[in-house]
Amino acid sequence: MSKQGTREFYFDNAKFILIFLVVFGHFISPHKGDSEALYTIYNFIYTFHMPAFILIGGFFSKSIKKAGYLKKIFKKILIPYFIFQLIYFALHRIWNGSETLTLFDPYWTLWFLLSMVLWNVLLLLFVKLKHPAIMIIVAMTIGVFAGYIQDIGTYFSLSRTFVFFPVFLGGYLLKKDHFYAILRPEKRIAAGLILVGMFVSYYFFFPQEAKDWLLASSSYEELGVQLGQAWFIRLLMYGLMALATFSFMAIVPRRKMFFTHLGTRTLYVYLLHGFIVKLFELSPFYDKVSESGNYFALLALAVIVTLITASKPIITLAQPMIELKTSLIQRYMDRKTADAS
């Protein structure tokens, strides 16, 4: 696998492609009911884009047993979570006139940050089980039975935390050799054919009610499924997500690409793009896209927004909110130190 220093191009490539799909998915979400093709694209993307992100997150959590690891995770993820939760609260207060502040009922995309913290806490408990098969079976059992809790949902992002935890755990258990194995040419071809086959089958056969299963944010009762069948459907969804996720990971390029370096900036894109998406929905351009059916404009817009929110000027401006530091001040201090010496 190609490297630049100790960093691997493969994972940065995957992260950039996935964050673009997140942005694109959010742009097309309000329009998915207007077009069968758009509805298919939406469901196809949502089958693997967050599971793949979660899988990679688990893969890079192998230092879980090291002292200070959780403290680092809390600082890196919880602080920006609280900052952006307060920003969203303020904006909703302005838009709606009234809003109740709930720190642990995440607004929109912020569920991922809260779940990421909880996945790491759960992982610290699960590594004590030691045997990988037992770990996965227990995690999937919890994910299946979480849906039977009627009130489970967005608070503390509990539903998504439990449902997606087996994916995070799977990423932790994977080794680089496993990724090497799926990157062989013949497996890349097979993975590409699987993804094409899934997309085509989604267009003709994907049930309307199945899309909510991909979000993993509702109980079985809210999903309107018979409780006796629910566990089987969730297991099927696990299988579908695994097939799509590993097929996607198999076609990600290994070499350095023009966008590879942007894969290191996905947290900025994830946190910032939501404001642009919401502003777009309030703009006249949103209605024009709906009326004209020019959905390629959404694709172009997603590309532009992804590139802008991953750009150095935007990162410099947002860095104090997201990383609680500023590279401008650091560069100034370094320059002063160099001048003094």
Which key features would you list for this structure?
1% strand; single chain; 341 residues; 2 strands
Structure description:
- The chain is an all-alpha fold and 341 residues long.
- The protein has one domain (3-310).
- The protein has helices spanning 9-28, 36-59, 69-96, 111-126, 132-146, 158-173, 176-182, 185-205, 211-215, 220-223, 227-251, 266-282, 284-292, 296-309, 312-322, 327-340; strands at residues 3-4, 7-8.
- It has a two-stranded antiparallel sheet with strand order 1-2.
- The longest helix is centred in the N-terminal third of the chain and has 28 residues, at 69-96.
In short:
The chain is mostly helical.
What spatial order of strands do you see in the largest sheet?
A: 1-2
Tally of discrete structural domains:
1
Quote the average pLDDT. 91
Helicity, as a percent range = over 70%
As a percent range, the share of strand residues is under 5%
Number of helices: 16
N-to-C CA distance: 41 Å
General form = globular
Q: Look at the helices and sheets and give the structural class.
A: mainly alpha
Oligomeric category: single chain
Q: Could you spell the SSE succession in H and E letters?
A: EEHHHHHHHHHHHHHHHH
Number of strands: 2
**Major sheet description:** 2 strands, antiparallel
Give Rg in angstroms.
Answer: 21 Å
Poorly predicted sequence stretches spanning 5 or more consecutive residues: none
Write the layout of secondary structure elements.
Elements: E1 3-4, E2 7-8, H1 9-28, H2 36-59, H3 69-96, H4 111-126, H5 132-146, H6 158-173, H7 176-182, H8 185-205, H9 211-215, H10 220-223, H11 227-251, H12 266-282, H13 284-292, H14 296-309, H15 312-322, H16 327-340
Antiparallel strand pairs: 1-2
Helix pairs in contact: 1-2, 1-12, 1-14, 2-6, 2-8, 2-11, 3-4, 4-6, 5-6, 5-11, 8-11, 12-14
